[in-house]
Amino acid sequence: MDLCVIYGEDNKELVSKMVDNFFRKQPRLEEDWRSMVASILSELTAMSDRVTSRDREVLRLGQNARCVGEDSEV
Predict the structure, then answer these.
(1) What is the pTM assigned to this prediction?
(2) 10 Å Cβ neighbour count for 37?
(3) Which of 11-15, 17-21, 66-70 bottoms out in mean pLDDT, i.e. has the lowest?
(4) SS3 16
(5) Rounded to whole angstroms, what are the CA distances from 39 to 10, 14, 36, 56?
């Protein structure tokens, strides 16, 4: 995974070949890889959901504060 992150963008073809060769030589590790990727995606989705929820709450509180401020000015 480190190779992909560090060198993948500038050397996509070479890194892809290296990863393909790795899984050809160690096929039993592919399931571990898939499990790890699924776990990372799940955690990233959960983090995104929490941030989105908090953003909505902040926006809601901000709108309520404006409404309260508008009422007091009348």
Answers:
(1) 0.55
(2) 11
(3) 66-70
(4) helix
(5) 27, 26, 5, 26
